[in-house]
């Protein structure tokens, strides 16, 4: 497998309301463990749509792993400005990930 698409729950669906919630570390650890195993089997790209929660956490893990592995991150948001209604802290995280991703292209050019 060369390409993996990651999707998952939003933080609110997991009753996580703060970015420093200790449960996030467990989720990221599980993602990291699985991603490392897949990279050792030939994984080259991780693709997300950039939604809050599992997708952003997976992107953060991928960027951390880039220091040790040859892995690429692609972000395909469903539309431009998808973060316009998000809490500010998630908007900042998203913008940092967009700037560090290897490829970013919205699926629909335009807002809501």
Q: How would you sum up this structure, described in words?
A:
InterPro entries: YspA. This is SLOG family protein. It comes from Tigheibacillus halophilus. This protein has a four-stranded parallel sheet, with helices on one face. It is α/β, with parallel strands linked by helices. The protein has a single domain, classed as Rossmann fold, CATH 3.40.50.450. The longest helix has 19 residues. Helix 1 packs across helix 2. It starts with a strand and ends in an 8-residue tail after the last strand. The mean pLDDT is 94. The protein contains three helices and four strands, in the order βαβαβαβ. It is globular and about 40 Å long.
CATH class: Alpha Beta
Count of alpha and pi helical runs: 3
Number of strand elements: 4
Q: Which band does the percent of strand residues land in?
A: 5-15%
Mean pLDDT: 94
Number of domains: 1
Structural class: alpha/beta
Protein name: SLOG family protein
InterPro entries: YspA
Organism: Tigheibacillus halophilus
Give me the secondary-structure topology.
Elements: E1 3-5, H1 22-40, E2 45-48, H2 54-65, E3 72-75, H3 88-100, E4 103-104
Parallel strand pairs: 1-2, 2-3, 3-4
């Amino acid at each position: 497998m060369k390409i993996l698409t990651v999707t998952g729950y939003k933080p609110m669906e997991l009753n996580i309301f703060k970015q420093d919630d200790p449960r996030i570390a467990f989720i990221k650890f599980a993602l990291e463990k699985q991603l490392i195993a897949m990279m050792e089997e030939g994984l080259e790209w991780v693709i997300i749509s950039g939604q809050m929660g599992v997708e952003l956490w997976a992107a953060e893990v991928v960027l951390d792993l880039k220091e040790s592995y040859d892995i690429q991150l692609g972000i395909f948001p469903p539309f431009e400005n998808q973060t316009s209604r998000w809490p500010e802290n998630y908007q900042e995280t998203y913008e940092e990930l967009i700037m560090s991703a290897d490829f970013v292209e919205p699926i629909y050019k335009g807002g809501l």
